[in-house]
Amino acid sequence: MDLSTLLPTTVEWWQVLVAVVVVIAGWVLSRLARKATVSLLRRAPSVSELVSTFIGRFVSYTIVLLSVGVALAVLGVNMQPLLAIAVVLAVVAVLVLRGVADNFAAGVLIQASRPVVLGDEVQVEGVDGKPITGVVTDLNSRTVVLETYDGRTVHVPNAKMVAEPIVNHSTRGLRRSEVQVRAERAGAGVDDLLARLAAAAASVPGVSAEQPARTIAVSISPERLTARVLFWHAPADGLTVVGGVVRAVSTALAGAGADGTVTSDPGLPPLVPSDSV
């Protein structure tokens, strides 16, 4: 490239003065725009400090580059080759950083729409196609970090969180679990036995009083009863509460003189941090 085609043949003193003024004004404006952008984004509680700082810097650098371009144009520099180079570099940057840009944009969307927040228990699809359940411990510009109940740390790309289904167990603040009961009636009435099972489940610490425990008869015969005991609890207390319900229901069956088996829901997470001590 012949650089002589880019540079002007003559430069007047007033052009230099205007170019300097434009650069200084652009620099001052970039600083003000950065502060204003960060201040505005901080008013939105869904936007993190990292995201607001990044956007503020991007706005600042863009204004500086524009002011430099205007200053060069004032000096008479041929901007067409420079613009062509800038376009090529921008296209290359987009292609190289496409994944990063996708995750950053998805991170902004997650921060704004808040489908998950810190402390939520969520379920996502793992690399082997099996579901992974964990607690959200960090939200950043690239990934959503989950801590699983067996001690693993999972980094889920933000784009994956936006593009694929996620199950949030914490949105309502409660999660429903159940145990299945197969018992001999031992002469007890169906309604009486179901009431005993529901009362036993409701007495367990951690079972929600807002959503009363209830029982549903699945099959009834003169000798046996099969039922489901449904109850609500905090998402993180699943195994502890279910274990307590299994013991309480078993005790209630023994008190009624009914021999039976109590089985927990196999869909529960394997372990929660509070249960590992």
UniProtKB/TrEMBL annotation:
Q: Where is the composition biased (Pro residues)?
A: 267-277
Q: What residue intervals traverse the membrane?
A: 13-33, 54-76, 82-101
Q: What family does this belong to?
A: Belongs to the MscS (TC 1.A.23) family.
Assign the protein's first listed, main location to one coarse class: membrane
Q: How does it sit in the membrane?
A: Multi-pass membrane protein
Lineage of the organism = Bacteria, Bacillati, Actinomycetota, Actinomycetes, Micrococcales
Give the protein's recorded name. Answer: Mechanosensitive ion channel family protein
Region Disordered: list its residue ranges. Answer: 257-277
State its location(s). Membrane
UniProt KW keywords: Membrane, Transmembrane, Transmembrane helix
Q: Where is the Mechanosensitive ion channel MscS domain?
A: 100-170
Which top-rank group of organisms is this from? Bacteria
Q: Using the record for this protein, list the coiled-coil segments as residue ranges, or answer none.
A: none
